[in-house]
Amino acid sequence: MTIPDTVLKHFVNRTGLVRRRGGGLLLLALLTQACGGSSGGTADEASAEEEEVHARAAVTVGYVAADTVADVLHLSGVTAYPAKDVLRATTTGYLMAPVPVPGQQVRAGQTVFTLQTKESRTLHLDRLTGDPKLRFSGIIRIPSPRGGVLATVDKLAGDYVQDGEQLGTVYDQSRFGFVLDVPVTQLRYVHTGQSCRITLPDGRVLTGRVAEPLPAADVAVQTQRYTVRPLGKVPQLPENLAVTIDLDKTAPQLARTLPREAVLTDETQTSFWVMRLLNDSTAVKVPVQPGPEQNGRIVIKSPVFSPHDRIVLTGNYGLDDTAAVKLTR
């Protein structure tokens, strides 16, 4: 190989080397070592370092904890007012003002609706004076048989109503409760007098007690209905509001638990495992048998982990056995 004189001259001037006969091959070797050797080694080292960094997954770890847990049965229910009264017209006539509004509180015996017969309106009997014994105004008052809240008002002032027509409904708030739907396969876990927890849609939790079973089952979905009485103060709730009712299937017991995100599973949810650290840079796959979940933590039935075992909490998804990891805070 012949090196151009301009290249040799430039290299000699830069390095101070003396050109000698046959120095072309020596100079070529020096050029190769200077330009290719050092840069190639640096590139290989950087590539290896970069590969090592990318191969390690950033993870955080946690530890097993001893918690008091119970096997909980989660069921659905609705709010209900089992005691309600329908207020009906007792004669044919016109509904007089003022007409109450839904949500209004009423007392037992309080007049809720007032009717005027068509004869009274035509003859103005309510304006006649004379012998009180012969006076008939044609004004009919319809009271509430019990105290409660006026749930519906079906007519407006001035409407003409027939005898027996519905005017409104009054709910007895003192008899407010919940209707619990229990699948027939779970009936052995529910009994009268059992305490329960009622979770409202906004997250509030009420305490309650199973009262009595209703003597009918839903044929389509095969569920038995129970009534549930709330304990303590209850906010004013509408009827047919969907709630969640939790009952304990077993007595509370002490168990070792892990956060939900620490337990991994396959697509069929038949195999479960966690990633445990062997050292600061290696995580191994450990099959586990999970138990019930409560408050975001899962009971680990087996194996028995030491309180000092470090379990990967985040960054564990997709890791293989003996995966290289890097601890982060």
UniProtKB/TrEMBL annotation:
Domain of life of the source: Bacteria
A single cellular component GO annotation: cell envelope
Coiled coil: none
Record keywords: Transport
InterPro entries, sorted: MFP_Cation_Efflux
Biological-process GO terms, alphabetical: copper ion export; plasma membrane copper ion transport
Protein name, entry field: HlyD family secretion protein
Native organism: Hymenobacter rigui
